[in-house]
Specification:
4 helices; 5-stranded antiparallel beta sheet
Length: about 110
Amino acid sequence: MIDRPEQVERLLAKLEAALPIATRVTPELQARLREGDRPTEVPANGSITWVSYAGDEGGIVCRLDFGQAQPNAVFASITHLRFHPRLPLAREITAYQKHRVKRLQRQAP
């Protein structure tokens, strides 16, 4: 098991209550979205407008809104997003991200 179920439930409830949440997309995610069959250009800053849990495989998934700059829906794992340190949930989000990334690295072959 990668995630702690009770931690995920608490964090999801807090995230849903705080929507929309300002966020920044990592440069790695921006580069990834520019590749592939349907290249997508996304700005660095946006808002999370929806969250859900995709199980251990996907973790917490967020729908990102970039306003007029990107009319198509963009979904990303919360581990690929960055938050302002003064955001009330920043510490809890960072703790979840670090735990998830650490567990995923342990599982890598």
